[in-house]
Amino acid sequence: DAGVTQSPTHLIKTRGQQVTLRCSPKSGHDTVSWYQQALGQGPQFIFQYYEEEERQRGNFPDRFSGHQFPNYSSELNVNALLLGDSALYLCASSLWTSAETQYFGPGTRLLVL
Amino acid sequence: DQQVKQNSPSLSVQEGRISILNCDYTNSMFDYFLWYKKYPAEGPTFLISISSIKDKNEDGRFTVFLNKSAKHLSLHIVPSQPGDSAVYFCAASAFGNEKLTFGTGTRLTIIP
Description:
By secondary structure, chain A is an all-beta fold. Chain A is built from no helices and 11 strands. Chain B has strands at residues 4-5, 10-14, 19-25, 30-38, 45-51, 56-59, 62-67, 72-77, 86-94, 97-102, 106-111.
């Protein structure tokens, strides 16, 4: 049973650039949530996708956007990168009917120089 | 505003003894609570959860206790094993708003 997968594992970008991160949910799951984890902090909720629509959004600027595809996979896009966007980006999947229990992928570590 | 707090950044416990990790929350709308374990270079792994209609949930060596009046929950691990050494995160969600709000984590070290 494949768990949540994310790509790439690591990424280095410079300020002002744009980045796209990818996530495939656990088999059978239909809901994807994205979180940002800064060093020494707990994960912070960015947004959640279900049925290809953004259902909830945390306190993140519009530079953060996402997409969900018909096969339930998802992308996180960040435009105009800032140094402060350097973090571990985690994707979590769940069933919409029990979205409170989420299963996480290994994350993508983004470094902005 | 930190709605979920884990006030102990680290905890060391001898192998075979009980590990107790604590978590406090401030938002009375939270009604579902989870514990995750995280190893370096991996994503958080779901351990155990509890709904606000219960005050205890047990799964093998792991037990979570919820005290709603004190807005406090704890995770008990017994007996503690070396493989339990990791960072433990407490998380909470509110009905109808399933985003998870996390604490800052507690690093548990099991001493052989």
